[in-house]
Amino acid sequence: MRPLPSLAAAATGALAGLVAAYGALAVAELAAAAVRPEAGPVTAVGGAAIDRTPSGVKDWAIRQFGTADKLVLQLGIVAVLALFAAALGVLALRGRRIASAGVLLFGVVGALAAATRPDSTSALDALPSLAGAVAGAGALYVLSGYAGDAVRGGAGPERRRFLLATAGAAVAATGAGLAGRSLNATSAAEAEASRGAVRLPTPASPAPPLPRGVDLKIRGVAPYTTPNDDFYRVDTALTVPRVDADRWRLRVRGEGVDDPRVHSFDDLLRRAVIERDITLTCVSNEVGGPYISSARWLGVRLKDLLAEAGVRPPSKGGPADQLVARSVDGMTLGTPVEAVMDGRDAMLAFGMNGEPLPFDHGFPVRMLVPGLYGYVSACKWIEDIELTTFDAYDPYWVKRDWAREAPVKTQSRIDTPKPFSRPPAGRVTVAGVAWAQHTGIDRVEVRVDDGPWQDARLAAEGPLDTWRQWSWEWPATAGSHTLQVRATDRTGTTQTSERTGTIPDGASGWHSVVVNVS
Hints:
By secondary structure, this protein is α+β, with helices and mostly antiparallel strands. 35% of the residues lie in helices and 22% in strands. Helix 1 packs across helix 4 (69-92).
């Protein structure tokens, strides 16, 4: 019998490595189901990669991939793992022990990533990666032995034994993976059942009726109220937390808290509930970007909750000037205590557009503070509130060069016509949205090709914490034209023309759109 050619030998070793890696991931997923899903190696390593990625790169990923940025990262991790596994499989043809040790090393990396994540609950978080690594190392050692025999024996019975062994290992791995997914699905089903059982209370303070004409209903313009499925999502959670509302608890503690408290979900439902229309904006939203949405929220006043615990704002002698909100996934956000307690509708929300919060948007409870960018105000899956100072603690994003305080900047956006569209000459509706949450929009102007500014028609004004639609009828002439928009808020401040990026405290500049009128 003739030995297999070198390329076929490499392919045989690579197949052994890939099947071993598949088995390692499957066993790790099964072990993660017994610990917690977030402790799985792909999620843990991905989370560690996000934590260590420079802010500029994260911002670029959000712009390029939107809400698919996490899927891209996970696919990238799996691709790197596959290449690593294939290389180890080829190496195993020369040294099975060394290659198997490489698998163990990768498992140690995953274990360290899981155990050192901000949301790690115990040293057991290292178990899934270690269990997967041991299984993968053992599988590679055995399969590479069969692979070596197949390489030396050519296409004879040794080859068939190798294929049967790899097929058997793949089947076993699939079984482990399906078992892990089934266990995770059971846990998720409990959380989904708890959400399904929620009956939202009638608000003691309902949202004021919206005036007629608040939504111009112009085709192409974002609706005044964003449907839940279309609401933007920007966060670092590779796996969306599935939290059981019956088990959820919120701690309130820290400096100036005279009476530390723990609240359950039912505790919040029994309180006086408020309903408000509030627009949220992500600091990663570039000029003209999509990361802004508006919804009708249901929840309880955060100010009242804090006051009952004895908290006072700095203006009234309170020792804490920063509220640190912690999420179940380890995220930390820092909010000025003064802003939370100055009378605006800062809330702990559990309802969104008439239904319990979707899991993607923070079920069972998230925090909202109108007028501030999300990274300093909109903690999803919140479970802990600590009162401290800005000098004493830097939250997640501040450690990564973002500003400590971040009020939303006055901005405007052209939604229609779309960039590089070809509207016919004549009357063309130019329309979009403008926002200055907690301040209000007073004026929107549009200009064509650096010409004079023209006043746009404003939609009826809703609450000051929401965006405002606008439109302008343009007598368009044939050719290429550049449209620009700017807004002025209720303080008389007109948004600046100076174009800046999103780091450290949000983008600025005028949104422009180039169209070709036919």
